[in-house]
Design brief:
This protein is α/β, with parallel strands linked by helices and about 230 residues long. It has eight helices and ten strands. The chain has a domain of about 70 residues. A hairpin with a 5-residue loop joins strand 1 and strand 2. The N and C termini lie far apart (about 35 Å). Bound molecules: adenosine-5'-diphosphate. The site of adenosine-5'-diphosphate has 12 residues, from helix 1.
Length: about 230
């Protein structure tokens, strides 16, 4: 769950990136965040991950009040969140399996668990046949699916997807968002930042529109079904 209460962020330069934002994203929600460049979308994500602090207001993420959260507890917060980036951020010298397993190795998960969990999540994103491939042997869409498996492997309650379809072929973009929707249906909260209006229109759901640091629209819209689309 994410809760913003009167949250403002003013950068040292004097730029007001968010202005008294109020927002609740409940457990199990799927929300798109849209808005033009400079609207405050990245600032919102950085706040949720506690990469930056709010200048004023309260941010609560998965039960943690971020203002009160001690620096040494930040990894505990981040373990409840999986993040997918536009540029995938896979490790080029590691296979698909290793890229995903790495997340669990870092937190000292038991070997036996890693051996069963990693192939399971790679299977969820449909890449069982590419387990031994390296990132440069995969398409953009496949690389993003690996990134999704990596975000999922630790069973986070929240996934933040920051322009996950930005470097993926348009047709495959729908697959990636479809996968996120499936993950959401299993109970994971998803916050997806996107520029792509077609995707938002196609899938529908909750749309949060930021403009110059303000929420100008926060509503649920219906999606377009396949038959109408094609
Ligand atoms: P978006 O992700 O929607 O493009 P951002 O959250 O990156 O928007 O930026 C919101 C506003 O804050 C913009 O005016 C941007 O120039 C400004 N900004 C972002 N990061 C910084 C920073 N580190 N220092 C100063 N200003 C920043």
């Amino acid at each position: 769950m994410i809760e913003f209460k009167d949250v403002s962020v003013k950068y040292a330069s004097g730029v007001g990136a968010l202005n008294k934002i109020n927002l609740t994203i409940n457990d199990g929600d799927f929300a798109f965040v849209v808005g033009s460049s400079g609207a405050g979308k990245s600032t919102m994500i950085k706040l949720v991950l506690k990469e930056i602090e709010a200048t004023s207001g309260t941010v609560i993420v998965n039960g943690f009040n971020l203002k009160k959260l001690k620096r040494r507890k930040i990894p505990t917060l981040r373990r409840t969140i999986g993040v997918v980036f536009q540029d995938f951020r896979l490790i080029p010298t590691m296979t698909v399996y290793e890229n995903v397993a790495f997340v669990l190795r870092v937190i000292d998960a038991p070997k036996k668990y890693i051996k069963s969990r990693v192939p399971y999540v790679i299977g969820l994103v449909g890449l069982s046949h590419k387990m031994k491939s390296y990132p440069n042997e995969l398409s953009g869409g496949e690389q993003q699916r690996v990134a999704l498996a990596r975000a999922l492997v630790n069973d986070p309650s929240l996934i933040i997807a920051d322009e996950p379809t930005g470097n993926v072929d348009p047709a495959l973009s729908y697959e990636i968002v479809g996968l996120l929707k499936g993950i959401n249906e299993c109970g994971t909260t998803i916050l997806m930042v996107t520029h792509e209006h077609d995707i938002v229109r196609h899938f529908g759901g909750r749309i949060i529109n930021l403009n110059a640091g303000n929420i100008v629209f926060d509503e649920v819209i219906g999606g377009v079904n396949e038959a109408e689309q094609h």
